[in-house]
Amino acid sequence: RDLNPRLIYATVTGYGLSGPNRELPAFDPVVQAMSGIMATTGEPDGPPLKAGPAVVDFMGGVHLLAGILAAIRERDRTGKGLLVETALNDSVIPTLMTQIGAYYGLGLRQMRDGNRVAGGAVAPYNAYPARDGWVMILAEDNRRWRRLCELMGRRKPADDTRSATNSARSGTRDELDAVMAAWTNDFTRQEIMDRMK
What we know:
Elements lengths: L8 E5 L14 H8 L19 H24 L4 E5 H5 L4 H10 L18 E6 L2 E6 L3 H10 L3 H5 L6 H5 L2 H12 L4 H8 L1
Parallel strand pairs: 1-2
Antiparallel strand pairs: 3-4
C-alpha cells in the first residue's frame, strides 16, 4: 500500500479477522451449522440438514465481489484504495431474515418445517407429487390462491372461509396439502408449469 495507495486488496475468512471465532475452521457445511442455516433445513422431527449447494462459499464470494466493486467506486472518488473484508458467516446471515423475524417477532422456536415455510405463514407452500417427479407450488397471497383455485378447476376452495386468507389456510395446512397433492398427481411437471403461465 505504501508503494501504491490506490491498491484495493480483499480477504475472505470464516468469521472475520478479529473476534472470538477468527481461528475456527470455516468449511461451507461448518459455517452452515454455525450461522443457523442447518437449524432451518430439514423435517420438524428430523435432524438439521445442510443445504444442498455450497451456499456459504458462493454467498461469501458474492459479498466479497460487492465489497470490491464498492471499493473501486470509492477509489474513483477519493483516489485511495481500501481493504475489503468479508466473513463467510456474516455473508449468509441476511438469508435468514425470515427465520430471525419469526423467532423474535412471533416467538417461533421450531424452524425446520420441510418444504413448508416455518410457522405456516404461507399456505399452500410445499413440494407436491406430479406424475413424473415433484413440483414446488406456493400461493403467497390471496390473489394467487384464488388464481390457483381457478387453475385447479376448484372455485369453491377460494370462497371457503377456512381457506379465504393465508392465516386461515395455515390452520388447515395438512388438509390443503392433501388437496394440492391430489391435483398435482394427475399431471406431469410440464403440464403443471404450462397451466401456471
